């Protein structure tokens, strides 16, 4: 893994947005994998700013978001689709038919996951995947456990993950759904390029385990060691355990 330690989260976000813009210029029909949570917020702000300056054209870009809360329809203000609308989609020129999202309110979760995997395959897979990492080492909503699933699936959310998502629900963890639909590890590992973002001291242990620890389902992000094109971009706090890496 190529580790880059930035002086601040804002610097990392600006570099990430610039990287996305360069990738889109190189391939205007880029297939982009997008996360939610706190880590990408500044990246999305920077991407919107680049678009408003005419430096990032999304008109031919295709996006696939990584996950959605089970039971929430797209128009629920607490859904991850609503998060993306607020922070990115409403502010750039993405073509609606090129925006792909899991439907947390689908009647049959298994069928919805199969539909999503088929749509991603039809699009040719993810060219550039942006990822965050949970404090417990999860990526997307692939939680630590005795095994991991390759395909999209229904995932039971850990308490750590639900705590991290509580701000979307007015800081009330009891309102955070117990489960979500998520892309599986197979789609993440098939992405052609990956940039993983991690900021803050609470991510340091997970980042160290991902980069330096064994490859294990108990730290799902560690499987990215098997990928040949992964960038790990952190601030000094998240990268505290990686002195000498990269």
Report on the structure:
There is one protein chain. This protein is of the alpha/beta class and 246 residues long. The protein has one domain: Rossmann fold (3-Layer(aba) Sandwich), CATH 3.40.50.1360. Helices cover 30% and strands 17% of the residues. It is built from seven helices and ten strands. It has helices spanning 9-26, 41-52, 80-87, 109-122, 159-165, 185-190, 204-212; strands spanning 2-6, 31-34, 62-65, 67-69, 99-100, 128-131, 153-156, 179-182, 193-198, 230-235. The strands form two sheets. Strands 1-10-9-6-2-3-5 form a seven-stranded parallel sheet, with helices on both faces. Strand 9 (193-198), helix 7 and strand 10 form a beta-alpha-beta unit. It is globular, with a radius of gyration of 17 Å. The mean pLDDT is 96.
Largest sheet strand order: 1-10-9-6-2-3-5
Radius of gyration: 17 Å
Percent of residues in helical segments?
25-40%
**Number of DSSP E strands:** 10
Order of helices and strands: EHEHEEHEHEEHEHEHE
Please state the structural category.
Answer: alpha/beta
How many domains? The number is 1
Low-pLDDT windows of residues: none
Strand content: 15-25%
Overall 3D form: globular
CATH class descriptor name: Alpha Beta
Q: Average pLDDT across residues?
A: 96
Provide the CATH architecture.
3-Layer(aba) Sandwich
Question: The biggest beta sheet, please?
Answer: 7 strands, parallel
Distance between the termini: 7 Å
Number of distinct helices: 7
What is the CATH third-level topology name? Answer: Rossmann fold
